[in-house]
Amino acid sequence: MEWPTIAQISTLAPLPDGYRYEKLSAADVLPLIAGIRRWHPDIAVGGGSCYLREAFYATSVCLDDEAHKDVFVCVFKRADELVGMWSWERIPDTRSMYGRLIVIAPEHRSAKLASQVMPLAVTAGRAMGAEFLFGLATLKIPHMQNALEKAGFQLIGFTSGYDCEEVAPGDIRRVFEGVFCKVLVPADELMRPDPANLTPRARALFDVLFPQPGAAVQP
């Protein structure tokens, strides 16, 4: 599961005029941290807070010409201005990719960069040999939910307290998030569970989320 090059990414998902991709460099780590603090203040706590720590990039993120680490950060630039970032993590043992974080500067959100590049996750994932993509979406605003749905990801449930946010100054709460996934292998390669091995509640939910082809779906 080799990471794509910036040239490949640019070909697979061209950005609007004036914008370009760059792989994160060591020189851009501190400017990116400062940008994320401005663009997404809520990230100071919770799962995304690692992107505010310089040590995280040194130990876990592919920088410059590195390719062996499992976290990839692609930044968006307009001229010399850093205007956003997008990060994925590969999980080679399960041939999976986890969409960790995408943040766009508020003044550039009208360019719809997140929606433009979301299909790239599928294209790049296939090219890398990934067989499963997944990510979490905030339920505070619908933008990421919309982007994932348009890219063909399926909402399969909600986490009840997996992550936490500062909902008001000094008030940190565990929150709900949407769980989205996309399987990149044909349906006939998926092993469905034996219904006899599911509790009645598990079977009822499974049948709603993953009905048999041709089965009637209850409204």
Low-pLDDT windows of residues: none
Q: Please provide the ordered H/E string of secondary-structure elements.
A: HEHHEEEHEHEEH
Portion of residues in helices? Answer: 25-40%
The CATH class assignment is Alpha Beta
The total of beta strands comes to 7
Biggest sheet architecture: 7 strands, mixed
Number of helices: 6
Cα distance spanning the termini: 40 Å
Mean pLDDT across every amino acid position: 92
Set down the secondary structure blueprint.
Blueprint: H1 6-12, E1 19-23, H2 29-39, H3 54-60, E2 71-78, E3 81-91, E4 96-104, H4 113-128, E5 132-138, H5 143-150, E6 154-168, E7 171-183, H6 200-209
Parallel strand pairs: 4-5
Antiparallel strand pairs: 1-2, 2-3, 3-4, 5-7, 6-7
Protein described:
With 219 residues, this protein is an alpha+beta fold. It has a single domain (6-186), classed as 3-Layer(aba) Sandwich (Aminopeptidase), CATH 3.40.630. Helix content is 27%, strand content 31%. It has a seven-stranded mixed beta sheet with strand order 1-2-3-4-5-7-6, sandwiched between helices. The radius of gyration is 19 Å and the shape is globular. The termini are far apart.
